[in-house]
Amino acid sequence: MSNAGGVRKGVGLLALVCLLVLTGCASLPESSAPQALGTIEREPTSAGPPPPEPGRDPDLLVGDFLGASADPTNRHAAARQYMRDDTAGEWNDEASITIVDRPDTLRESRTGDRATYVVRARKVGELGRDGVYRATDGMLENKIEMSKVDGEWRITDLPDGVVMASASFASTYQRYVLYYFDSTAQLLVPDPRWLSVPRGQLTERLVGLLSGGPQSAIAGVVRNLLAPPTAVRSPIIKAENDPGEVGVGIGGVRIDFGGLGTLDQRGRELLAAQVVTTLSRADILGPYVLLADGKPLDERFASGWSVADVDQFSAAAPAGNKIGLHALRNGTLVQVTPDGIVAPSGAFGEATNLQSVGISSDGQFVAAVADTGRPAPEPGRTLLIGNYGAGAFGVVEAASIARPSWTMDGGAAWTVLDEQRVVRAVTDRATGNVSLQDVDTSALFEGAGAPRLPITEVVVSRTGVRAALIADGKVYVAVIERRPDGKYALTSALPVAIGLSTPAVSLSWITGDTLMVAREGNVDPVFTVSIDGSQFTPVTSQNLTPPVRVVTATQSTQYVADSRAVLQLQTADPTRTDRFWREVPGLTGEGVVPVLPT
Question: Which of 48, 153, 239, 331 is the most buried (most CB within 10 A)?
Answer without folding.
Answer: 153
